Amino acid sequence: MAQCRLPSFVFEYLEGGAEDEVTLRRNRAVFEDLAFVPTTLVKAGAVDTTRTIFDQPAKLPLMIAPMGFCGLFSHRGDVSLARAASAAGIPFIQSTVSNASIEDIAAVPGLRHWMQLYVFRSRPFMERLVARALAANCEALVITTDASVFGNREWDRRNYRRATEPTFRNKVDVLLHPRWMRDVVLRGIPAFQNLLEVLPPDQQTLAASATWSRREVDPDLDWERVSWLRSLWPRKLVLKGLLAPVDVKQALGIGVDGVVLSNHGGRQLDGAISPMTVLPEIASRFGGDMTILIDSGFRRGTDIVKAIALGADGVLLGRPVLYGLAAGGEAGVRKAIDTLGEEFARALALLGRPSIAQLDPTCLYRADANRMAQYEKAERLV
Length: 382
Ligand SMILES: Cc1cc2nc3c(=O)[nH]c(=O)nc-3n(C[C@H](O)[C@H](O)[C@H](O)COP(=O)(O)O)c2cc1C
Prior knowledge:
Layout: H1 2-5, H2 8-15, H3 22-32, E1 34-36, E2 51-53, E3 56-58, E4 62-64, H4 77-88, E5 92-94, H5 102-106, E6 113-117, H6 123-135, E7 140-144, H7 154-164, H8 168-175, H9 178-185, H10 206-216, H11 223-232, E8 236-242, H12 245-253, E9 258-261, H13 275-286, E10 291-294, H14 301-309, E11 314-317, H15 319-351, E12 364-366, H16 369-381
Parallel strand pairs: 4-11, 5-6, 6-7, 7-8, 8-9, 9-10, 10-11
Antiparallel strand pairs: 1-12, 2-3
Bound molecules: flavin mononucleotide (FMN).
């Protein structure tokens, strides 16, 4: 439905990956190598999907991933995502480059509001953003570490620019999508609201804010900068975009509370490994000491079961909620979360592990022989 409702240059911004999209495909293929070993004749009348993340229970082990430029998919798209997250009882991670301000999202009732940071060159501006997130009572700060150089998304190179500077062809495409035109174009897409204070008064536009954000992201982001942000932020701090165990170790060493294992949904380094492949090692080494979250390629409840079984504490939803948003606004996002939640609960019941706490690697079998040996070892321990 999302693909039908959006002009193609908008859908490509949502869907596309970097370069040859090898990582984008790998993010899906990895789940097929993991097979379930269900146990049957287990009472599965009551299924418990509750998961405590950062000391607060969530109805599902899920949260909404930070995604920029959501005003392109639906009018006030960020607010719709946040409201749906609140209704579902899961956290919402707001992107730095959202079309709503931190304060707009903080006004959504009952929301667990986390704020994602792209780290820009200007330290005073970063201090301001952190102060605003603190004042808005954000529960966690999520620093994105895998995007200090922009990925080579060839769809985006054409389309992202065209969303703010439409060509004749795009204008025709818009006319062919009257529902989107009415909802998004005629009501107007706001600039990236969190950046307005760094833009000169005559340049408070969407195009100027998008250009500024691309130009000013700091390509020299490093551990020193993260430690500095750690010193500014007293609440939960999460690093997003880690894949190497050595980086997770370093994160723990500087007092980071959690990580999101992620390849940015295949939108940054093409050829990057799937976070699902590194999850077992990272979870077994660091899982007791920090919160391990994961994203990239999750499309089914069974995918979520596999990640939790391999040691993840929770899963970030990316494109699935954007499909919902484009197809049906806030109700569409709720539908997307509900569908995944129902699939997750059904899979737990069918697997014979009706409580999320019963998930562990022994319910999975990997196609290759080494992994089979691991499974057998785990099996013997049970
Ligand atoms: C349209 C779009 C915009 C995104 N914008 C951001 C962003 O502003 N900050 C960020 O850290 N990640 C961003 N991401 C990456 C997501 O947070 C997440 O890592 C990714 O979408 C997960 O993969 P999935 O879409 O396959 O579930 C974006 C992803 C998409 C699809």
